[in-house]
Amino acid sequence: MKRKLSIGLIAILLLGILSACSNNSGTESKSDTLRIGLAAPISGTQAQYGQAFKNGAELAAAQINEAGGIDGKQVQIVVEDDKGDSNEAVNVANKFVSDKSILAVVGHFNSSATLATAPVYNKNKIVEISPSSSAPGVTNAGDYTYRVITTDAFQADYLADWSQELGYSKVALIYEQSDFGIGLLDVYKQSAAENNIEIAAAEAYNPGDKDFSTILTKIKAAQPDAIFIGGFYNEAALIAQQAQKLDLNVDFIGVDSLYSEALLELGKESVEGFKLIGFFYPGGDNEKATQFAEQYQASYNSKPDTYAAYAYVATSLVIEAIKEQGADRESIKTFLDQVKDYEGATGVLSFDENGDVVTVPSKLKIENGEFVLFE
Fold it and tell me: 223 in the Ramachandran plot: left (φ > 0), alpha (ψ -120 to 50) or beta?
C-alpha cells in the first residue's frame, strides 16, 4: 500500500513539475494574452506585402508589451496566411471567428479577400479592419468591416483633379486586373471626363507580370501627356524601366500603393519625377510617421513601406480600443465607431458611418532618388 501511495505521489509531483515547465516555457496560455488576428499573404506572389503587414502589426504589439501590456496582459499577434487568395481567406476567417480568444482581425490585404470574408466576420460580430483593401465595394461590406486606407474612388478622383492642375489633357491608364485596379480605372475615367482630360488608352496587366512592352508600345502610339498607374510598386518600377527603353518620355502619376523604397531601388533613375499621393510620409509634418519609421528601422533594419504603416495603425487602433473599452469583440467595435481625429503614422483619421476612413493625403514626387513633398 505504501509503495502504491509513493508511486502515486511521485506521479502527481511529476505532473506538477511538467505543468510548471509548460507554463514557463515562453508560450503563454490564451487567458494570459490579448490575441489579435492578422490575415495576410505571408506566402505567394504578394508575400512582400504580407511581411510588411506582419512587421507593422507586431511592432505595435511589441511597443505596448514593452510598456507593460494592458492590465498586465501581453498583446499577441496571431498570424494566418491567406496566400492572397479569396478562398483561402475565407478559411482563415472561419478559423479566426471560431477561436473566441481572437478579439479582432487586422486584414486582409486584397479587396477581393476582404469582400469574400466580410460576411463571415459580420455574421459572427467580430471587427475586421483592413490596412489596404481600397475597392469601393468594401464600403458596403458590413457594420464590422473597417479600413484605414481611403477608397479607390477617393484616390482616383483626387488624382484626376491633380492631373488637371498639372496641365495634363491626355492620360493613359495602366491598371492591375483586380478589384483594386478596376476600381481605380472606373473612377479615374469618370473624373477625368469631368476635368476635360482625354483617356488616351486603358491597358490591364495581371499581378506579377514582368513584360509590359506590348502595353507600352500601344500607349506610345497614343501620345499621352502622362501615364496613370493603378497598381503596386514592383510592377510600376518595371513599367518605368521599360518605358525608358522605348523612349516613352512622359510623366507618371499614381496612388499611395507606389510609396515604397522598393520603387526607388528597382526603378532607379527611371522613376525620377514620379508623382503620387501618400498618407504615410516620414520626415514631414507628421511626427507620428517619423517616429514609426525610426522604430521600424531599428526593429527590422529596413525602411517601412506604406502597408507596414497601415498595418501598424490598424493594430494600434485595436490595441487602443482594448485599453479604452475592454477586451471583448463588441467593445472594440464601439470604440472604432467613435474614432475621430486619431493621430497616427498615416495621418489624422476618423471613421464614417460605413467604417471608411476619412483623412487627407500629401502630394509627393520622386526627386534625386527620394520621396519629397510636391510643391
Answer: left
Nearest to 86 by CA among 63, 108, 57, 54: 108
Tell me the residue range of the domain where 72 lies: 31-150+286-358
139 and 39 both lie in a single domain: yes
**166 and 254 in a common domain:** yes
Q: What tens-digit pLDDT sequence spans the chain (375 residues)?
A: 433 434 443 343 333 433 333 333 333 446 789 999 999 999 999 999 999 999 999 999 999 999 999 999 999 999 999 999 999 999 999 999 999 999 999 999 999 999 999 999 999 999 999 999 998 899 999 999 999 999 989 999 999 999 999 999 999 999 999 888 998 999 999 999 999 999 999 999 999 999 999 999 999 999 999 999 999 999 999 999 999 999 999 999 999 999 999 999 999 999 999 999 999 999 889 999 999 999 999 999 999 999 999 999 999 999 999 999 999 999 999 999 999 999 999 999 999 999 999 999 999 999 999 999 998
Provide the CATH number for the domain around residue 303: 3.40.50.2300
In a domain, 19, yes or no: no
Asked if the structure places residue 372 within a domain, the reply is no
Contact 228, 160 (CB under 8 A): no
End-to-end CA distance of the chain: 90
